[in-house]
Amino acid sequence: MDVDLCIWLILCATGVMGQFQVEPLESTVLKGSDARFSATVQGMWEVMTWNVRGFLVLTVPRIGNISSSSEQFSASFCSAEDTSCVVFTIHAASRMEAGPVICTVQGDYGSKSAQLHVQESGTVQIKEGDRKVTQDEEVDFNCLTSAWFPSPVVTWNLNGGAVDSSLYNSTHVAHGDSFNSSSVLKFKAVKNSTVECLAMLQTLTKPLSSSVHLVVVPKPPDWTVLIAVVCSFGGFALLFLLIYGMVFCYKRRREKEPNYQEEMIKRLRTQSQLSGLRPPGQKQGQVNAGYVTDGQKSVTPSDLTDGASTRSNFFEMPDAVYNSTDNGNGYSIEGEGFRKHRHATTV
């Protein structure tokens, strides 16, 4: 008995006639790579067909040659001895082939459907390029991706280590049938670093990346505090010197300022010295012996210098003060309302 006929009779007896399955039911590939699906039929079958996005692209007979609408599509048995398993391949898959992939087995088997997803990677670039900044300066880098489908997952590395997601923010914008994205990283520059932006898709074996170098220049010394301290001490020192100078000048001025008695003594000494230097024949001034001091009422003839002539005049003047006596000014009152004055002149 033929082997295939025996298998068909066994399947009919066990009730599994008309069953088959397609794997995987969902496949995601990167644009340009191959997508593969396999169909396993339990039982006798004659013809299998494959449709991509509603178009018949390939026919597989159990016995005979496989026919394809394009070289992009092909099929083969899993092994030469096992005709129950067929592998269907879409070569260099693009987003044009993305969608439902349907396998149909003629007879009582019906159809099984799978789903194909095609991803597309674009470009990634850090906009700023290499930078040189001052230490502790806040820096930001903008990473741009374009022509990705779907939108990529953008991450950052700093000196080979992953950057915390709280330090950057990413946005994605649809652009036609693809996506563009922008991710901004902000951090404080501490030392020379390598900044790397990475864009990743599920189908990529490794992320696409763009890297730049950050050169950190030590910041100049902060002289603010030192200047403030110096200015403060300088201000206090200047104020102290100003006050000290004012006090010193005041004391010197007081020391140089003579009192009345010292000035009179100095003048008398000067006059005495000048008297000794008079030329011969020049008369020397004499003391006015007729001068009456306070409390003295008259001048006696003995008080006058020898050889000097004296002339005395007596006259009365009305006094503005009546019935009064002044004992301390050298005047005497004779008669009511009159005060006698004496003037003596010695030549």
The termini sit apart by 190 Å
Strand order of the largest sheet: 2-10-9-4-5-6
Q: Give the overall silhouette.
A: rod-shaped
Structural class: alpha+beta
Q: Report on the biggest sheet.
A: 6 strands, mixed
Question: If you had to describe this structure to a student in words, what would you say it looks like?
Answer:
- The protein has 347 residues and is of the alpha+beta class.
- Helices cover 18% and strands 42% of the residues.
- It contains three helices and 22 strands.
- It has helices at 3-14, 224-256, 260-276; strands at 19-23, 26-30, 35-42, 47-52, 55-61, 67-68, 73-77, 85-90, 99-105, 110-119, 123-126, 131-134, 138-148, 153-158, 161-162, 168-175, 178-188, 193-200, 208-217, 310-318, 332-333, 338-346.
- It has a six-stranded mixed sheet with strand order 2-10-9-4-5-6, with no helix packed on it. Strands 12-19-18-14-15 form a five-stranded mixed sheet, with no helix packed on it.
- Strand 9 and strand 10 (110-119) form a beta hairpin.
- The longest helix has 33 residues, at 224-256.
- The chain is rod-shaped.
- Residues 1-17, 302-316 and 319-338 have low confidence and may be disordered.
